[in-house]
Input
Amino acid sequence: MEHPFLYITWIMEQLGIGVHFAHTYPHVTGAWVVTGILTLFAVMGATSVKLVPGGAQNVLEVVVTSIEDFFAEITGEHGRFLFPLLASYFLFIFLSNMIGLVPGFFSPTANMNTTLALALITFTVTHVVGLKTHGIKYAKHFMGSIWWLTPLFLIIEIISHIARILSLTFRLFGNIVAEDLVLMILILLAGWFLAPLPMLVLFLFADFVQAFIFTLLSAMYFAGALEHAH
Amino acid sequence: MSKKQFFSLAIMATLLIGGTAWAQEAAPAAAPKGADLSFFVYTVLAAGFGMAIAAFGCGLGQGMAVKGAVEGTARNPEAGGKITVTMLIGLAMIESLAIYALVVALILLYAYPMAPRIATFIGLPA
Output
């Protein structure tokens, strides 16, 4: 599956820098685009903060407060410090998914490396947060309620933690790759009749749902690490 | 039936029967002599059937999830918002199982690492 015409690859070819890099790693250049757009939104809305908001600041306030309130409900009040990570997940994944729908850009999340990186961040933060909150007693999370079932429970818990990484990776990757493939095939089959248009609506919805699910699952894992063991 | 219907039916029958005969001629010319392509045939079959069975199970599961959500909203319309959010979360979880099957199918079709070695083993040029 060759990659089609991508704007960033074309720009880098014109400038003559890093052409091999841009051809082999389109997901990295796509991630640069996503980061650039998010930074642009932030700069537009958050410089010169006024007491009575107007325009971009208003939109940013709505986005930030709704995400913060929703996830604070899930992680609990003591988990509010995790909000920046969760909001970054949501905005980055949502924008990355959507940018693949625009012809000329490549979704960074359509590559397993990006989704695996995000899942590994969740895994690491879960354990770091658990260790910082509970100290050595964090091991009680892996031991279960009945003491003589501990070996079995330990194995199950370890496998379940590894399965979390796999499931987060593959869910996001599979959805976005399937979306790209369907768009490619529809354009190949019936592009002149604008066949991909109804599918684009479905994919916008699916992008939002996948970003939301990734963030929600991460929040639930963080909440599980923060709470007291049974 | 009228003359027009009879003739259109006759033309369709000729094309269908003749078409299968023409297809038989074209297919065996592609593979070199002595290469047993059944591995690749079975791989493609497995990819197709695997995804189809996963979609079947996913459809049943998601149908039950939506059924529960709609019944819950019918009993208690005020809780409709929360029920819808929970339903969407459940649907994404169930769908991820079908996505795993899709990823396996895509790996089989596009990225199966043993495929070049098996191809040279059975005698194909690639």
